[in-house]
Structure formats: structure tokens, C-alpha cells
Amino acid sequence: MTVRRYPKERFIIAAMLILLICTGFSWAAESLPTEALQRDFPQLPFESLRPSPIKGIYEVETDNGILYYAPEASCLIIGNIFSRQGENITRQRQEERILKRAQTLPLAQALKLGGGQHTVIEFTDPDCPYCRRAAQMLAGKENITRYIFFYPLSKASADKVRHILCASDPVAAYKESYRGGLDNKPLQQCDAAAVQERMKIHREQGRRLGVEGTPFFIIDGHIVTGADLPRIEKLLETPLTKR
Length: 243
Fold this sequence. Notes:
Blueprint: E1 18-21, H1 34-40, E2 48-51, E3 58-62, E4 65-70, E5 75-77, E6 79-82, H2 89-102, E7 111-114, E8 118-124, H3 129-139, E9 144-150, H4 155-166, H5 170-178, H6 193-209, E10 216-219, E11 222-225, H7 229-237
Parallel strand pairs: 1-6, 8-9
Antiparallel strand pairs: 2-3, 3-4, 4-5, 7-9, 8-10, 10-11
């Protein structure tokens, strides 16, 4: 799995990786230190700023995820905030952010399989063994619609993606690839502008959502990171009317 890091040239993080524990919180009406954040970190693009569960520390939503800002110390903080009950509040906010962005995914650019009631959006790498394992499990499900975005993490994987999208039958090529059928086979490497653009869109959407590794799923509005087959099975077995 790859991990995304913030470029040093964009801003300096004047804090160590920390773990914050809290017992509970509420957001009181207060002015936000927007100008202070812009002054302290002028190279940091951010989308929103709001109070965090820790008094005096603010949640900063950026393209790369959730950070925290301590204006009194002029510091940015990278870490997770947990409630007393063990809930990862930071992760919950990250997932809210991902699901909000997922609402505008260009599904017409994805590789679509099936036409069932359950919606499965996935970011996948053809050479990822866990992606293949999940793909084989999903292949046996009938009541699902899959929207596949390719997120290759190596040149070899990108070559397979290009072969799949260049094929006259991309769905058949996808299935062959995820069965291992392309591992020792000459690959089709067309130079079609539409294929190049589609691959670019897939990569950009993965980055926009903050996908750091594959496989990554959004199943009926629930995020599943990795090939967590039992959780995937449970989500797909749950009637949509009971959600």
C-alpha cells in the first residue's frame, strides 16, 4: 500500500505525529482562525476549517485529507482523535469527506459490470493479489452493479489497464486479467487518446478521494478498505430497505 505524504516545499509541519484522546465534545459557536491559518501556512490550500473536539484546535480539510491546526502554537498536527468509547473521530470525518466526493464520481468513465440493486464502486490494480481475490468473490454475485476505476500502482499494472481499456471487449479483458490470464501474455498497447484520457480520469478520481492503496470499495455508501471479504459479503447480503 502506498502512503501519501505532504510535500515539504508546500509547508512545514511544526508538530510530531500524535494521538489525541477525548471524552466527548460539542461545537460551540465561535469565530474561526481562518486568517491566522492563512498567515501561518500561506502555501496550504484548504477547503474548510471548523472546531475539532479539542478546545483550541481546529479541523482543516484539505485535498490530502484532514489535518488539525493549533493557532496559539502556529502548528499543524497530523494524527487521529479518538473518543473515550474508542471511536476514531478523524477517520469518521475522512469517510464523510470521501463519501461526499464520491457523489460526483464520473461513473460513465468507469468500467461497468452487472445491473443489480447493490452498488459497488471499486478502485483496483490488476496486479494486486488482494484485488484479484475480491474480484473473484464479486464475480459470483448477481444482484450488484460494479463501477470499476483502475488505480495502478506500477508500470506493469498500468500496461494491463491500457490493454483492458484498449480491448474490443473491455469486460472480457478485465475478467481475463483478474484470473491471471494476462500475466504471461503480450499486451495490447494502443495509443488511443480516449484510452489515455480515461486512465487519467481514473487516477485523478482516486487521488481526489484520497485512495492510498488497493483494493478500495464503496458499497452502498459504506467504505471498505482492502479485501475485507466478510464485510463485503455482509454488506451485499443486507437488503437495501434495512439500511
